[in-house]
Design goal:
The chain is of the alpha/beta class. It has helices at residues 2-15, 22-28, 30-46, 50-64, 177-180, 197-227, 248-255; strands spanning 67-68, 73-74, 79-80, 87-88, 93-94, 99-100, 105-107, 120-121, 126-127, 132-134, 138-139, 144-145, 150-151, 160-162, 167-169.
Amino acid sequence: MFSRLRSDIQCILDRDPAARTRWEVLTLYPGLHAVVLHRLAHWCWGHGLKWLGRFVSQLSRWLTGIEIHPGAVVGERVFFDHAMGVVVGETAEIGDGCTIYQGVTLGGTSLYKGTKRHPTLGRNVVVSAGAKVLGGFVVGDGAKIGSNAVVIKPVPAGATAVGIPARIIPSKSGASADVTTADPKFSAYGITLEDDPLSLAMRGLIDSAAGQEHQIALLWQAIESLAAQPGKKDCVPCDAARDDSFEAERLTQLVGK
């Protein structure tokens, strides 16, 4: 029990630069308190003490602002960071090393008892502030859920989900860096470069338009060169675009680099 507590404290020290000492984490971090109280509630729930498990869960909610159903499964080194308003449903499963921020809901969309109604988070998943993960599907290892995203379908390992409803951005290498490296780099709030699919699409369109304008300008220059040869009649329109004028760099800056 104490070794697991030490592990939970260490994971907070590793992921929160504001944490200074183990004593500070032990006494002042509600995310740690919620995890410890949930283990007691989950033990009661698993041993048939349903009411007592719910009572401990409710007590934890009053003390920490984090509501975890006693039936939920929470792995090791799970960090609820600034997690006021977090709700974790009965059949939810949170894998080892996950980080969950404030306002997150791991909820269900089914009303049938005895079924898997809530999501399963793999290892090292980051669920950013305000995100809602709704349904009995799996979020793969190392996945990241953007702030305020509404996820209603499975997320592959290493992918990023952003938007309402969430759009899935697959990992560039096909596997999460959090999964494949021995010393994974933690991304606070799940922030990664190039994680907005709309910006990626807009940048692709801008690059394509700039390339097409460049090709058109080259064609007009070639036509003008041919028309200027002896014996050729000048038929090039005076308003033809012979130079690139498409402001690709400016538009790219507007949509974000």
